[in-house]
Specification:
- By secondary structure, the protein is α+β, with helices and mostly antiparallel strands.
- The chain contains 8 helices and 9 strands.
- It has a 5-stranded mixed beta sheet with strand order 5-6-7-8-9, with helices on both faces. A two-stranded antiparallel ribbon has the order 1-2. The chain has a two-stranded antiparallel sheet with strand order 3-4.
- The protein starts with a helix and ends with a helix.
Length: about 200
């Protein structure tokens, strides 16, 4: 397992390669749920350390969970400028639990249907197709790693497939879904937790 310093170096290297920086974007400081011993913040609320105009006031000493977060737009030049989270209000990141992988699109609750608008929706569908066929979400190159594509908006979440957007059910229905082997319990629990 990588140390936090190694993860941070990898993120910085990928960001330098893409030529991108946050450039005033702080959406991750709002939409993400953070439930760690050193910092706790509900989803869809601004972090107490964030100045929405200038960024993190404790950036140099920010918690481990923040240091390890990788915004896909920041490190993937395949994502056009329209995906800049400050503009799109959509953050993309990976989630892995017990050998199950997910590509998460988390949307700011102030624009709950943004993910259904173009150019976002068609790209999300393409990522879903690539995930089910074991290809890189953006480039479509074979990786052999399959993943689920999930959109999270506030307390709601959808499993995205190439042909349908399936609302992720409450915990009662989720239990049946887990028993049928469609989801690994810890992965599903983590997706439910993202909703706050």
């Amino acid at each position: 397992m990588n140390t936090i310093k190694e993860i941070e170096q990898e993120i910085n290297q990928e960001s330098a390669t893409s030529g991108r920086s946050c450039n005033g974007c702080t959406i991750c400081c709002k939409v993400l749920l953070i439930d760690q011993p050193d910092i706790q913040k509900p989803a869809n609320e601004w972090c107490k350390h964030c100045d929405s105009q200038f960024g993190c006031r404790i950036y140099a000493t920010r918690p481990r969970v923040c240091r390890g977060f990788t915004c896909k737009w920041l490190v993937n030049p395949e994502l056009g400028d329209e995906w800049w989270p400050k503009l799109s209000k959509i953050i993309q990141y990976e989630l892995s639990q017990n050998e199950q992988h997910g590509w998460i699109f988390q949307v700011d609750v102030t624009v709950p249907n943004r993910w259904r608008e173009e150019p976002y929706y068609s790209r999300i569908k393409q990522v879903a197709h690539n995930g089910l066929t074991g290809r890189h979400g953006l480039t479509g190159e074979p990786t052999g790693i399959k993943f689920k594509t999930v959109v999270v908006v506030g307390k709601e979440a959808w499993l995205i497939t190439p042909t349908a957007d399936l609302k992720i059910p409450d915990k009662t229905v989720a239990t049946r879904t887990i028993r049928k082997g469609m989801w690994h319990a810890s992965f599903f629990t983590e997706v439910l937790r993202l909703r706050g």
